[in-house]
Structure formats: C-alpha cells, structure tokens
Fold:
Amino acid sequence: DRFCTYCIIPYARGGKVRSRDLESIVSEVEKLVLNGYKEVVLTGIHVASYGKDVRDENINLLTVIKAINEINGIERIRLSSVEPVLFTDEFVNEVSKMEKVCPHYHLSLQSGCDETLKRMNRRYTTKEYKEIVDRLRENIPNVAITTDVIVGFPGETNDEFNKTYEFLKEIELSQMHVFKYSPRKGTPAATMENQIDPQMKQFRSEKLLNLNKENFNKFAGKFIGQEIDVLFEQSIAENTYEGLTPNYIRVIVKSDREIHGEILKVKLTDIKDEYVEGTLV
Structure:
C-alpha cells in the first residue's frame, strides 16, 4: 500500500496488506529447528506493515520477533529489507534486549536526496533516515546497516546525485546494493519526463560502488584480529566454506572437515573485495 512510483508490486499484488497468521509462522520456525536450521530471516513485501490488517492492535512485527526469540534451537533472527520508519525508540529498545536478533538492519534508502525521494513517493526524508541510523548505532553495539540505492531515477540531476553521494559518504553504511533505474510498464515513473541515459546511470552506479567498497573496508576493518561467531552456510570450493557474522560480514575460511550449518568462532584476518578471510579458532 506504499505505491512508490517506480514499483509494480502494488499493482501486481493489490494494495491491501496481508499478514500471515502468527501461529503458522511460529509453527514453521519450530519445524525448521527440527531440520537443523539455526537462523531465520523474516521477510515479506513490506514487513514493517505486519499486523496492520489484524484486528488485534497488539500484533505487529515486534510480536513476531519476540515469539521466535522464545523458540529453543533458533540462534539467530534476521530481518530482510525494512522501511526506516519501523525503527521507533520502542522498537530499537526492544530488539536491543534480544540476543538472538542479529545486529544487522537493511534500511531501504533508494536516494540520499529529498527531491528525488519525493518523486519516488518515499515517505521519509534524509534527515529522518539519518536519525534512525544514529538511533541504531547508539543502542546496538557493532550494528551493521545496509541499504538499497537507485541511481538514474527520472529527473535525477547531477546536483541531486551529488547530494545522494555526499549523504552516503557521510553516514558510512556498511554495505550498499546499487541499482540502475529501469522503468516498469504501468508505474508513474515509467512515463516521467527527463529519463536518464544508460551511460549516466552506469557512471553514477560505478561511483557509488567505489564508495561502497570504501565503506565496507572501514566497517570490516574494525573487526580484523577479533574472534567472531560465524554461521557457515555453504561450501564454495574444496575445503573452503562461506558464512556470515551476526552483523553481516561475509567470511571465508579453510577447513579440513565439513562445517556447513555450524556456528563456529573465527579469527578475522584479511579484507578482500566483498568478504573477509579468517581462520577457525
């Protein structure tokens, strides 16, 4: 029901929010535990709106997180992309108390320029976004904040893009997913004036990707030499495994034994392009 001007989802799915039954969520997580899973990711089209269509006003996303936090066997709870407006003082205070909730939040930004955000029909300003980033950092130690950014949105001038770049340089998020705007037939943005040419989109994308590398190196660099728990999710080569720290640093280690699905202590040793090398402790 947000109707961002670039997004086809409200037209494809219908504008009404539909929340999955809380009992069915808990039941599925309990089954996942029995099958050896240690982490769950809460995801949806717009998870911040969970419970808005439920008659009980006490049911919301925080209710779901608390319920899963009580399930024995689940060791990590992670949220997928979330609208920044979810992170009120109450929400941040509550999740900061739950050790199973990963200190990693993917706050969808899309643009660091207020004029662009208005054309996108995003319902926050850069000032509000920064306040939420500051709130998370003040209350959750070592929190990772990742985001999505669209470059080349219709009407994005050089000045507007520069505002986005400077904003992202200032707040130093740990990682950014950068997307070049592509029109979706049937959305307002597809027929907006001043569509941006592909070469300019590519230039802006590369500039943000370079900034992303700088920011990741700064964030990951703070943990080099430390021993951190890593959940190993897959084998990527012979005797080589990949996993994630709670705050979403991708780690690669060598191991002579199968460690897929285990949470193990790793000493982080060296930063590569988008991951960190480590050694099992």
The CA atoms of residues 155 and 198 lie 14 Å apart. The chain has a mean pLDDT of 93. The helical segments are 9-13, 22-34, 61-69, 89-96, 114-120, 126-139, 158-171, 198-221.
